[in-house]
Amino acid sequence: MGEVTAAGDGPAYRASDWTLEALLSAKGDQRISIVIPAKNEEATVGEVAARIIADLGGLVDEVVVIDSDSTDATAEVARSAGAKVFSAREIRADLGSVPGKGEALWKSQFVTTGDVLVFVDADLIDWGTHFVTGLLGPLLTRDEVRLVKAIYDRPMIDATGREEESGGRVTELVARPWLALHRPELAGLVQPLSGEWAIRRSTFASFEVPVGYGVEIAAVLDTADRFGVDAIAQVDLGLRTHRHHRHDTLGLMAVQVLAAAERRRAAAPGGGSQDASVTLRQYARGPEGFEPRVSEVGVGERPAGVTVGMPAHAERGTRAESR
Ligand SMILES: O=c1ccn([C@@H]2O[C@H](COP(=O)(O)OP(=O)(O)O[C@H]3O[C@H](CO)[C@@H](O)[C@H](O)[C@H]3O)[C@@H](O)[C@H]2O)c(=O)[nH]1
Ligand SMILES: O=C(O)[C@H](O)COP(=O)(O)O
């Protein structure tokens, strides 16, 4: 097993570094929750949840799908697959609701029971349950590790099945350049935006959480700032394919990633209120020439979960933050 830090000055871990038996014994009495945020993922969420339940039922204590304002059969499909399903909007309704993936992850804190949270996207196509065991390995076996990021090859497959150039466009054009400019000690992160990551509940509950796609870059920066770069481990999981966005929706994602990163560079505008937004203008040629499309992109943040009250069943993991 290689020594690895986020700076990438050593080989990443590999999922095969741990057997299921080794993880079961390292787990002890800790509880493990898998959290799958899902917005209109009826085509894939059932398979993602069912495979984890079938392969890892002995290791994982619960598989929770957070339905993020889906208008399709995501919730029904996930429930039939055996997952516990919650609507993000209905969790802690006293705290209101805003759209976004980060919101779904933040809300998951109030309904999960795990000391360790493993986030897995719902739109995975090529993947395996070694994603989960790989992400758990460093967290269960090394006390200093707080956050584990998945790294993988991520080819971009077009509608005909042909492999385009590699994916991760926001990663390559936004996140990596920003890290190179402002946080070079984190430049060794192979996939700073990977949607599969594991974190101690106590750590996550102490973070402010961007409501949108800024949630990953924020967790990386906050972990490094609070606990040091060595608190982040990377695990090579091989190959991942997923559904791709068009360029215009990736532009919105890029705004959210940048807003979260900039907020952590300086007290920049944008964060703070859960409803904060930035106006993004994009252009497409129409009959009269280039026409603007204006989007209000949510870049607000939720406060640290511990400040708004954790449910009793989660208190053990949250108190452990002093670890
Ligand atoms: O409002 C939303 C939007 C998305 N999702 C879910 O979040 C996951 C990832 O969303 P997706 O739109 O597929 O993101 P990607 O294009 O895959 O973006 C990558 O980069 C993002 C920015 O870091 C990460 O949040 C993603 O997990 C990562 O896969 C999926 O399960 C979605 O269903 C929600 O739950 N609510
Ligand atoms: O992680 C990213 O950079 C975005 O999800 C975009 O990924 P894609 O270019 O593979 O669609």
From TrEMBL:
<feature type="compositionally biased region" description="Basic and acidic residues">
    <location>
        <begin position="313"/>
        <end position="323"/>
    </location>
</feature>
<comment type="similarity">
    <text>Belongs to the glycosyltransferase 2 family.</text>
</comment>
<dbReference type="GO" id="GO:0016757">
    <property type="term" value="F:glycosyltransferase activity"/>
</dbReference>
<dbReference type="InterPro" id="IPR001173">
    <property type="entry name" value="Glyco_trans_2-like"/>
</dbReference>
<feature type="domain" description="Glycosyltransferase 2-like">
    <location>
        <begin position="33"/>
        <end position="125"/>
    </location>
</feature>
<keyword id="KW-0328">Glycosyltransferase</keyword>
<dbReference type="Pfam" id="PF00535">
    <property type="entry name" value="Glycos_transf_2"/>
</dbReference>
<protein>
    <recommendedName>
        <fullName>Glucosyl-3-phosphoglycerate synthase</fullName>
        <ecNumber>2.4.1.266</ecNumber>
    </recommendedName>
</protein>
<dbReference type="InterPro" id="IPR029044">
    <property type="entry name" value="Nucleotide-diphossugar_trans"/>
</dbReference>
<feature type="region of interest" description="Disordered">
    <location>
        <begin position="291"/>
        <end position="323"/>
    </location>
</feature>
<keyword id="KW-0808">Transferase</keyword>
<dbReference type="InterPro" id="IPR050256">
    <property type="entry name" value="Glycosyltransferase_2"/>
</dbReference>
<keyword id="KW-0460">Magnesium</keyword>
